[in-house]
Write the structure tokens for this entry.
Amino acid sequence: MRLENKVALVTGSTQGIGRGIALRLARAGADVIINGREADEDARESAALVRAEGRRACILAADVADAGQCRRLVREAVAQMGRLDILVNNAGIQKHAPFLDASEADFDQVLAVNLRGPFFLAQAFARHLRDAGHGGRIINNSSVHEDLPHPNFASYCASKGGLKMLMRNLAIELAPLGITVNNVAPGAIETPINRELMQQPGKLDRLLEQIPARRLGQPRDVAGAVVFLASPEADYITGTTLVIDGGLLWNYSEQ
């Protein structure tokens, strides 16, 4: 699965799954735009890891919750790297709150980052590909919670369910332009977003009992799937979700 001469934009690639995806894309031959809200030390470390693989990297800070910044991000990515071929909508957040206590501000923030951002980034990206006259790949980092309820995270589940339908709709609309659109849906992955879980051995053990693979996923597990969907081997795959969860989705129950 080689991606030479391809340029990828990975949102939220300053740490965790996003960094793993950026690094794996670089190993496959792609140049990578690192994105986070700030051009901070984490962003510089991600860029350095990409360059260590012999690939070009640049850092572009932008808040994907802002549609205007999404459009600017695509413009600046093309200006700096010359082209864009792959968009990975990885940036995401979640807010814990019982439904009856959830705030309007938290709801707005989760939906803005997890759904509004991918919508307007995909739009700007697809417009660029149309004008450039070549196809490309849109890959969204969703979650098993695009299907699986998760009490106390209603806004997160709503955002990921919306992302599933957005992906399916865009797959139909953008296919004539040679653009495929797919989701990857991680289960429980060992990343900073799950730091609290990692510090609760009892809760972690109960979760592991429900994962047939008997382990948490690693960023590399998600990154490999993203590289496959970005590669020529996936030319005929669009409008689908690739679940990466060690079997969790079919063996899970709330306790």
User: Anything to note?
Assistant: The chain is about 45% helix and 15% strand. The beta strands are 7-10, 31-36, 57-61, 86-89, 136-141, 179-186, 241-244. Residues 104-132 form the longest helix (29 residues).
